[in-house]
Each structure stands twice: as C-alpha cells, then as structure tokens.
Write a structure and sequence with these properties.
Blueprint: H1 2-16, H2 23-37, H3 41-62, H4 66-97, H5 103-110, E1 116-123, E2 129-135, E3 138-144, H6 149-163, E4 169-174, H7 183-189, E5 192-193, H8 198-203, H9 211-224
Parallel strand pairs: 3-4, 4-5
Antiparallel strand pairs: 1-2, 2-3
Length: 245
C-alpha cells in the first residue's frame, strides 16, 4: 500500500517537473541568439576552424605528414571554433537582458560556486530593487533601478550591519544610465558596473570570511529571508507591480 503511494508520488513529481532541454535544443537556441546579435559570428567561427586546420597541415607538410597532421588538427580546430562560438553566445545572452529589470538577478543566480543569491530583498513601488549575495567576500548588496535604489541599499546595509555585526558589506550598482555622464564615468565615480562585468567584478572581490564563518552567516540569513517574490529566470516584465510595503 505504501509502495503504491510512493510510486504515485514519484509519477506525480515527474509529471509536474519541467522538462530539460536537450543539448541540441540548447545549441539551436544559442545559434538563433548569436545570429540575431552578431550576424557574422558564424563566419568568424568557420574562419578560425579553417585557419587552425590550415596551420596544422602546413606544419605536417614540413614534417612530411600533411594528412596525419590535418587529421589531428581537425578536432583542435573544432574546439577553437566552438570556444569562439560560446564567447559570442555569452555576449549575446548578456546583450539580450542588459538594460531590462531583473537582469542583475539573472546574472547573479547563474553564478554557481561560492555565491548564494537572495533576489529582491528590498523593493519599492518603482520596481527599484536590491539583491543580497553571500560569499567569502562577505555580504554583497546589488542594486538595480534608478536613483531611489541608493536609499534601498542604505536601508538594507543598516539591516545587515545590525543583524550580522562585523561582517563586511559591499555595495554594487548595476546598470548603464543614459544621460550626461558616460558609462565609464559612472563606473568610476558611482561604482556602477554593467551586467556583462557583474560576474567578474564579484569574483574579484577579496575573500574576508572563512568557510566556517560563511556557513554561519548563511544560516543566520535564512532566518532573515527576503520578500519571497516570484522571480523569473529571465528579466522581469516591466508591467509587473510590486507589493506595497
């Protein structure tokens, strides 16, 4: 009887679980994204493939083994072309979400090792929001939105300093505001970075917590939680409304 119940529960979980995309479907989607963002990307990938094979054949010809060298250089050429394609796909993925609300949360939640992200821990009615990240660098508050995001980050910073005394808190603003000041000046003077550079910026932060200290910090943060907002995997829709606080 209990075995039947377990089988029913397993079958129900399988039916409700989302289907994973095959590798071929992922590559197909990546190709469409790259083609839309950079139409000549595939040409560059093919050019790298041909150059590597040609270079291998030339070396093999000097060694009196052109066919053997060409056979060995073909998989290397494929890897080189595929590596370039992944770079184009990564750039196209960031370009597709850059400037949209929730783009920073999408990037943060894609970081797998060493970073635990709680999206939208502080939100206002204008959909300005702050995300909280815990890592060995301490607590990282990532803000998305307009000028009011600064006050949200200050509120969250005071909350973290009161709740986790002694743990370093770092603030990062994400975005490319269009106005009289260029993006580079914003990055230098306001500490604002683009979505593409967000992952690299966080990983370069100095590590200030040990593994045990980080485990204790995350255990305490679980009791704090967030706003429990349903965050989509991609950028947030601009017509969604934030709950009143």
């Amino acid at each position: 009887m209990f075995g039947r119940k377990k089988k029913k529960e397993e079958s129900a979980n399988k039916s409700t679980a989302p289907e994973k995309q095959s590798q071929l479907a992922v590559l197909k989607d990546a190709y469409k994204l790259v083609k839309k963002d950079s139409p000549f990307a595939i040409v560059w990938c093919l050019l790298v493939f041909v150059l590597v094979v040609t270079f291998g054949v030339i070396i093999g010809n000097n060694l009196d083994h052109p066919v053997y060298a060409g056979f060995l250089s073909t998989p290397l050429a494929f890897l080189a072309g595929f590596f370039l394609f992944t770079r184009f796909a990564n750039t196209a993925a960031f370009s597709s979400i850059e400037g949209q609300l929730g783009a920073g949360a999408s990037v943060l939640m894609s970081i797998r090792r060493g970073f635990v992200t709680t999206p939208a821990v502080n939100v206002n009615r204008n959909q300005d929001m702050v995300h909280r990240v815990s890592s060995k660098a301490g607590i990282i508050l990532v803000g998305e939105g307009g000028f009011a995001t600064r006050s949200l980050m200050q509120d969250e910073r005071r909350k973290m300093e009161r709740f986790l005394s002694g743990v370093p808190v770092t603030e990062v603003m994400v975005g490319d505001e269009k106005g009289q000041v260029s993006v580079r000046k914003l990055q230098k003077h306001l500490g604002q970075i683009s979505v593409r550079k967000l992952q690299k910026h966080l990983k370069k932060l100095p590590k200030k917590l040990s593994t045990a200290q980080l485990r204790e910090v995350r255990a305490r943060l679980r009791s704090v939680g967030g706003l429990n907002l349903p965050m989509p995997k991609g950028p947030m829709p601009t017509n969604s409304r934030m709950p009143k606080r």
